[in-house]
Amino acid sequence: MRRSPSRWRSSNFLDEIAPEPPLLPADAHGRARARSIALMLAADTHPLVTPRVKRYLTTVGGFDDAAWRAWQINWFATGLNAVEQRLAAEAATGAYCHGDAITIADICLASIPAVMKVFKISVAGVPTIERIVPRCETHEAFAKADPFKQTGAPKT
């Protein structure tokens, strides 16, 4: 059975429960690009700093605190530099990761610096990211979702 074009556009949970504004572009290439950038961040950068990875590296891997910090810095820098290279090179990058509307890619991007603040890590040399993230942070939805404003958040 063939799905209708409107169904293709609503291909993620958030778009299904809150379709406006859509988190994926209307066109197929735009949706693929936004998803691809989001996955670079969510699947290739963020998981490397989860507690289970730290637990493994500090027990089985023999990492001390300095080695763990070096690991985090390396993978944040590697991931963000790859995304920066892409955003800076592709014409489809606009005010946000894809064009001038927030997409799922921006949600994933904004989550990385939020986590980096917890670990007191910064990555230099990512001007496109440094332009996009503050723009996201001024949006009402991002401001409400700020991890540091949530119950149980660490003190900054």
What does this structure look like?
- The protein is mostly helical.
- The chain has one domain: Glutathione S-transferase Yfyf (Class Pi), Chain A, domain 2.
- 59% of the residues lie in helices and 0% in strands.
- The chain has eight helices and no strands.
- It is globular and about 50 Å long.
- 22% of the residues are buried.
- The N terminus is likely disordered.
SSE map:
Blueprint lengths: L4 H5 L3 H5 L10 H15 L8 H9 L5 H25 L14 H16 L7 H11 L2 H6 L11
Helix pairs in contact: 3-6, 6-7
In short:
The protein has 156 residues and is an all-alpha fold. Helix content is 59%, strand content 0%. The protein has one domain (23-147): Glutathione S-transferase Yfyf (Class Pi), Chain A, domain 2, CATH 1.20.1050.10.
Roughly how many Å apart are the termini?
52 Å
Helix fraction, binned, reads 55-70%
CATH architecture: Up-down Bundle
Order of helices and strands: HHHHHHHH
Keywords:
156 residues; mainly alpha; Glutathione S-transferase Yfyf (Class Pi), Chain A, domain 2; 0% strand; disordered N terminus
